[in-house]
Amino acid sequence: MSSIDAMLAQAFELCEDGNYLEALELYDLALKQEPKNIRVIIDKAVTLQNIGRLKQAVRLYDKALKIDPGNLDALINKGSSLHTLGNFEDAVLCYDEVLKTDKKHAMALAYKGLSLGEMGDLSSALKHFKKALSIDADYDLAKVSKEMAQDLLNSLKEKSKTQ
């Protein structure tokens, strides 16, 4: 096992235990040795994302994408960070990039559905949740989100009938 792999394994354990700041120190050490190591960059970004430092995480995902423009992990996680920041349109663009490479990426479909739902496009959101579930029938996020979108659509239809 290389020293980078050992640092990543140790950082993972630290994150599992909730010691995110210590994990970030290990990622920084690893990046001093290998500044363009995609795994380290993405793992550090995910850790930053987990502690709410979303703008820093997005910058690191962008750094990873400069090195490897088609990296699906970086794209999905960047989209997730952008979604949390309320930048739903750019989040959708990230998920669309993933779906260009892998049309059956259940997570990208479900996450895109979440962003579309936040943008008010419930019918498109519902389609994406259904498609994600057709790929992975046990995907809880898609199940719950599909039910919520369906309930919202039904209530909007009922409301428009009574007006």
Poorly predicted ranges: none
Number of domains: 2
**What is the CATH topology of the largest domain?**
Serine Threonine Protein Phosphatase 5, Tetratricopeptide repeat
CATH architecture of the largest domain: Alpha Horseshoe
Helix content: over 70%
Distance from N terminus to C terminus (CA atoms, Å) equals 67 Å
Summarize the main sheet.
none
Give a quick set of tags describing it:
163 residues; mainly alpha; Serine Threonine Protein Phosphatase 5, Tetratricopeptide repeat; 2 domains; 81% helix; elongated
Report on this model:
The protein has helices at 3-16, 20-33, 38-50, 54-67, 72-84, 88-101, 106-118, 122-135, 140-162. The protein has 163 residues and is mainly alpha-helical. The relative contact order is 0.07. The protein folds into 2 domains: 1-95, Alpha Horseshoe (Serine Threonine Protein Phosphatase 5, Tetratricopeptide repeat); 103-163, no CATH class. The mean pLDDT is 91.
